[in-house]
Amino acid sequence: MSNGPRRHIVPANSIGFFSTTESGHRRDRRIYCRLKRNSRTFATTPDKIGWSRTVYGAGKGRRFDHDGYFAKFEPLNNDSVTALLHEEGAWKNADQWINLVAYVASRITRNPDRELNSAEEFAKWKGGGSIGYPLNLQRLSAAALRCRWEFITSPAQDFVLNDRGFVGIRHPGWQAPALFVPLRRDSAVVIGGGARHRKQLAWQNGGWRISIPTTTIDSELTLKLNAMSWIGAREECYAARPQPLENAAKYHLSVPDEVKNLALANDYVYPILGSTLDECVADEMLLLRLLGGIRVREDSDDPTNLWI
């Protein structure tokens, strides 16, 4: 196993979006990495960091390799998502948002600790279940659809990305647990907020658009979020420059223990997963309905506006 191929936990292409370099393949662009074990910061490229030769091993058996399965979701985090993140106003392209939902869910699912947590969850349910990655991705995709979403931009300070690709936080406005997911060095999403949140869809300019707010934050809040990413990292964090990494590592020492615990929680997806089997089934039924195509009710007074 130790001589097997490299398997990235956070896709190298996704780490490349945090580089200031604009040319060349994203996995070969200059990035900075800081290690938790010795606080060393160094320049490198995404292809050389964030990987393991033993990842995706729990419960799969020797002949199963889910890296190829997850690779199909990596292109969903592409330039169309960049356009979505920087689109002005609350109304976003619904198709691009669905791509982002699938990508975020795949990022959470592919984390190696998630498989072990799923095994514990299923063991508690009388109905049993599989701990296979495809099933976990379906569950998380359905749950992510139901979550409250918010786009965040940080024009004054770069975000830090950890080697999980996300971290648990408490959203100050929602007063609820959430997952903070950096996607670009200046853009991120937050999902959670009590798990179930209705969203408005509207037919505009020949396509469905979804209402999701965007919040611009200052350097102080960015530093706090970066510190949480540092705390929640398994082994390392990445950024476009050394300074955000060093600031996050220094600031995390002043974070209260009750806040740190959100980043260190064993089951870090609890802010979005249904707490009962009925809730999980309801999430997946919504996912299946959307996969079949959005249908306008014939008896609706306003067929150009829907709620999901």
Report on this structure.
With 308 residues, the chain is an alpha+beta fold. The protein is built from 10 helices and 15 strands. The strands form 4 sheets. Strands 8-9-10-6-13 form a 5-stranded mixed sheet. It has a 4-stranded antiparallel sheet with strand order 3-2-14-7, covered by helices on one side. Helix 7 crosses helix 8. The N and C termini lie far apart (45 Å). Residues 126-130 have low confidence and may be disordered.
Number of strands: 15
Terminal Cα span: 45 Å
Order of helical and strand elements: EHEEEHHEHHHEEEEEEEEHEHHHE
Instruction: Name the assembly state.
Output: single chain
Query: Mean of residue pLDDT?
Result: 80
Which structural class matches the secondary elements? alpha+beta
Low-confidence stretches: 126-130
What's the number of structural domains?
Answer: 1
Primary descriptors:
308 residues, alpha+beta, 5-stranded mixed beta sheet, 4-stranded antiparallel beta sheet
What's the arrangement of secondary structure elements?
Layout: E1 7-8, H1 12-16, E2 31-35, E3 41-44, E4 51-52, H2 67-71, H3 79-85, E5 91-93, H4 94-109, H5 112-124, H6 133-146, E6 148-153, E7 161-162, E8 167-171, E9 176-184, E10 187-192, E11 200-204, E12 207-211, E13 214-216, H7 219-232, E14 236-239, H8 242-251, H9 257-264, H10 277-291, E15 305-307
Provide a quick synopsis of the model.
This protein is of the alpha+beta class.
